[in-house]
């Protein structure tokens, strides 16, 4: 899986379009029903958890919106936020009292989704989810959270022991998918070869190709934070 599988402009446009759908359709519908906003990875993309007595869910699969419940599912091509919300029978627009939406509520702007880019992002979320599951099982004492795909930043992440670990589809600063380690107190001083981002450390899709490699990166970041926290200045005897 490499970023060269998709043109950079197509990837950026696809990520922006899917982010809008995640915020203004899926998370908006989930919040209206449950008060929650966290999404989860799914084959082909991402989805809400099932909610309501009928097990209703909304999902993005490639360039399609899927609406389902216990009785079955139906799907349609993603064209605009308004059309997607109408198909899902929900009111579009993420509630601003929860947080200021990261994407515009442009109801009728076309959603430009490249299938190859959508597949890349879905695979990246899947890799991240597998890595976080492997890693979290190793550190129960850190009380790792569940992995959620947060609609604000559109990244999949967990928190464990005052450190964030996650998989991002890319953003304005790192334009291709990457995994990250973000200590709550900021990166330890020194070791700039590892701590290569203002928030901590990041490794891109060019550097991470498997869930095992991503889990090893998380493990390394945690070890470096703990080593710094337990380090003590040496004392010289008179």
Structural description of this entry:
With 238 residues, the protein is of the alpha+beta class. The protein has two domains: 3-88, no CATH class; 115-230. 33% of the residues lie in helices and 20% in strands. The chain is built from four helices and ten strands. β3 and β4 form a beta hairpin. α1 runs parallel beside α2 (81-88) and α3 (115-138) crosses α4 (211-230). The longest helix is centred in the first third of the chain and has 27 residues, at 8-34.
Task: Quickly describe the structure.
With 238 residues, the chain is α+β, with helices and mostly antiparallel strands. It contains 4 helices and 10 strands, in the order αβββββααβββββα.
What's the count of strands? 10
Category from helices, strands and their pairing? alpha+beta
Largest sheet: 5 strands, antiparallel
Q: Approximately how much beta-strand content do the residues carry?
A: 15-25%
Mean pLDDT: 94
Order of secondary-structure elements: HEEEEEHHEEEEEH
Give the uncertain stretches in residue-range form. 1-6, 234-238
Total of domains: 2
What coarse outline follows from CA principal-axis ratios?
globular
User: Termini distance?
Assistant: 58 Å
Task: Name the helicity range.
Answer: 25-40%
Q: What is the helix tally?
A: 4
Order of strands across the widest beta sheet? 1-2-3-4-5
Query: What Rg, in angstroms, do the CA atoms define?
Result: 19 Å
């Amino acid at each position: 899986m490499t970023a060269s599988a998709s043109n950079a402009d197509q990837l950026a446009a696809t990520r922006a379009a899917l982010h809008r759908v995640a915020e203004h359709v899926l998370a908006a519908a989930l919040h209206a029903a449950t008060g929650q906003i966290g999404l989860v990875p799914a084959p082909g993309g991402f989805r809400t958890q099932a909610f309501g007595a009928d097990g209703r869910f909304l999902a993005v699969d490639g360039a399609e919106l899927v609406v389902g419940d216990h009785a079955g599912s139906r799907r349609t091509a993603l064209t605009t936020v308004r059309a997607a919300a109408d198909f899902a029978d929900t009111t579009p627009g993420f509630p601003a009292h929860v947080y200021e939406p990261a994407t515009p509520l442009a109801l009728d702007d076309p959603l430009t989704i490249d299938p190859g880019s959508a597949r890349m992002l879905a695979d990246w979320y899947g890799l991240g989810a597998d890595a976080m599951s492997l890693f979290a099982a190793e550190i129960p004492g850190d009380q790792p959270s569940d992995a959620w795909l947060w609609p604000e930043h559109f990244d999949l992440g967990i928190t464990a022991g005052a450190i964030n670990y996650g998989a991002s589809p890319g953003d304005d600063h790192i334009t291709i998918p990457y995994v990250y380690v973000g200590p709550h107190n900021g990166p330890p001083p020194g070791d700039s070869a590892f701590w290569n981002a203002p928030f901590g450390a990041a490794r891109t899709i060019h550097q991470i190709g498997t869930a095992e490699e991503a889990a090893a990166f998380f493990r390394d970041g945690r070890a470096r934070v703990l080593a710094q926290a337990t380090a003590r200045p040496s004392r010289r005897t008179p």
